TrEMBL record:
<feature type="compositionally biased region" description="Basic and acidic residues">
    <location>
        <begin position="1"/>
        <end position="14"/>
    </location>
</feature>
<protein>
    <recommendedName>
        <fullName>EcsC protein family protein</fullName>
    </recommendedName>
</protein>
<feature type="region of interest" description="Disordered">
    <location>
        <begin position="1"/>
        <end position="28"/>
    </location>
</feature>
Length: 314
């Protein structure tokens, strides 16, 4: 699958503009962003073969391997998901997720409508995005099962950590695009938008993000980190029964992911449709002027940078 954007560490090759912040050395943030971007293959926007089935297990194994060196002994030895050591590991997961969120590609409404010309109203488009996210989450569960069958699988607790982060990245992309679909795009700075989407994900509610004061409050560091830690830990504990022994319950794990993402989408959509859009007539104003063929249409990341892709005249 084509990376959702290209980076160049040489500013002179980037039009003199500062380049994006470098990803962590282990590549976790970029890998999570790529996994989130695969939602677009599942919702029909990108070719289905852009995510080869055989790659998913290897991708999840690679993600778990990248996490192994940074989460602490409580995770790498398959220890219980409770206790002080694992609490520290969960906070490291929070850091990894927070680093990844600004890199997640978010399509604006015009791009989404161009990619889904059959969606006549917001509910149709929201259905497509939800369906894509649900399938992508389920594929992560299947990928973890495949990773366990590798000759040297990563430690179970680290596999769980990778799955938690991958599903969270997919769901955050879904949340951000649902806000676009319902005419409530989130403004503010990069850190404010990141904090806002993370808060929505951790609280499982479609919060009203239209007020600057709300964005500032949601971006408060310590409280948000604790919310995210609790959410990730609870999710990890729920996955244990389906991932033991030897991942024989991988199919069940995929079902859990599918159900949880679908439930989250339902709750977010209920809250979003209960509020008026920021701009009357937003849906008609975003009618696509060009049809999208082959690849992903141009969009942006949560950081606001361009997402490379192709869009041709209709």
């Amino acid at each position: 699958m084509r990376p959702f954007r290209q980076r160049d560490n040489d500013e002179s090759k980037n039009g003199g503009r500062p380049v994006a912040d470098a990803a962590p050395a282990d590549g976790t943030a970029d890998e999570l962003a790529r996994i989130a971007a695969e939602l677009e293959a599942w919702d029909g926007s990108a070719p289905a073969d852009s995510v080869p089935q055989g790659e998913r297990g290897r991708r999840m194994a690679s993600l778990a391997g990248a996490l192994k060196g940074s989460l602490g002994a409580g995770w790498t030895k398959g220890a219980s998901l409770v206790g002080s050591t694992t609490k520290d590991g969960a906070l490291r997961l929070v850091d990894r997720l927070t680093e990844a969120v600004p890199r997640i590609p978010v399509r604006d409404l015009r791009t989404l409508r161009a990619q889904h010309p059959g969606a006549r109203v917001a509910e149709d488009l929201a259905d497509n995005i939800t369906s894509g996210a649900v399938k992508a989450s389920a594929s992560v569960g299947a990928g973890v099962g495949a990773a366990a069958m590798l000759p040297v699988p990563p430690a179970m607790a680290v596999e769980i950590a990778g799955e938690l982060l991958a599903v969270a990245a997919i769901e955050i992309k879904m949340i951000a695009e649902l806000y676009e679909v319902y005419g409530q795009p989130v403004g503010g700075s990069v850190s404010q938008r990141t904090g806002a989407y993370l808060s929505v994900w951790s609280q499982r509610r479609g919060l009203d993000l239209s007020k600057p004061t709300t964005l500032v409050a949601l971006g408060a560091g310590k409280e948000l980190r604790q919310q995210l830690r609790k959410r990730l830990t609870r999710s990890g504990l729920r996955k244990l029964p389906s991932l033991t022994p030897m991942m024989v319950g991988a199919v069940a794990g995929a079902v859990v992911n599918r159900r949880d993402t679908a439930k989250l989408a339902q709750e977010i959509r209920r809250d979003l449709r209960g509020r008026p859009p920021a701009e009357p007539g937003y849906w008609a104003a975003a009618a696509p002027a060009r049809a999208v063929e082959g690849g992903r249409a141009k969009g942006r990341t949560i950081k606001g940078e361009a997402v490379k892709g192709e869009a041709v005249e209709g």
